[in-house]
Amino acid sequence: MLAAARAAFAERGYDGASIRVIATAAGVDPALVHHYFGSKDKLFLAAVEAPADPAELLPEVLAGGTADLGANVVRLLLRVWDGPTRAAGLALLRSAVSNEWAARLLREFLVSQVLRRVVGTLDLPPEEAQARGSLVASQLIGLVMGRYVLQVEPLASATADQLAASVGPTVQRYLTGPVDLRGMVPGTP
Fold it and tell me: What's the per-residue H, E or C state across 165-185?
C-alpha cells in the first residue's frame, strides 16, 4: 500500500491521488487502506515517512495569531528538526536533492501538509497564497540546509530563539507583509 501511495502522490500530487486509486494500484480494497491509515492525510505522512504530523503541530503555530506567525513557524521548524525525528527529516531532504521522485514527495508534503495550512489561515487570493507559500518554503528549506546539512556557522549553533528573531521577520514578511509578487501571480507583469 505504501509503495502504491508513494507512486500515486509523486505522479498525481496530494490533491490528485485518491484512496481508491491507491488501493486499486496496491490490489486491495479501499476499506483496508482506511483501516490501516485512517485518512488520506495519515497515508500521505506514512508514504513520505514524514518526521512529524503538521496537523498536530500547527495549532501551536497559529495560536499566537497572525502577528507572530513568522517567528512561530521558524520555532516549530527548529523544534522538529532539533528533536528525535532529525534523522528521518535529513534522509528525506537528502533524497529530495538527488532524486526527482523524492523531491516531488517532499514538495507535496511542504505544499499540502504545511504551507497550505499556514497560508490558508490568511485572507489571501489563492494565487497570492501560493506565491507567498513558495517564498516561505524557500526560506525554510534554506534554513534547514544551512543549519543541518551544510552546518554553516554560526547558523548551525544558534539557538532557536536567536533564529526565530533573525529569520522569523523574513518569514512574516513573506506571509503578511509587502512582497513584490510581479510575475509570480497571474495577471501581474
Answer: HHHHHHHHHHHHCCCCCCCCC
Distance CA 187, CA 127 (A): 10
- List pLDDT tens digits, range 70-98: 999 999 889 888 887 787 778 778 878 88
- Centre a 10 Å sphere on the Cβ of residue 23 and count the other Cβ atoms it contains: 21
Rounded to whole angstroms, what are the CA distances from 56 to 5, 65, 117, 144, 151?
22, 17, 12, 21, 28
Locus of grid cell 513557524: 73
Q: Give dist(CA 78, CA 70) in Å, integer.
A: 13
122 touches 129 (CB < 8 A): yes
Residue 182 phi/psi, 5-degree rounding, is -60, 130
Q: Rounded to whole angstroms, what are the CA distances from 163 to 8, 73, 159, 160?
A: 36, 11, 6, 5
36-66 per-position pLDDT tens digit: 998 888 887 787 777 667 778 888 888 878 9
Per-residue pLDDT at 108: 78
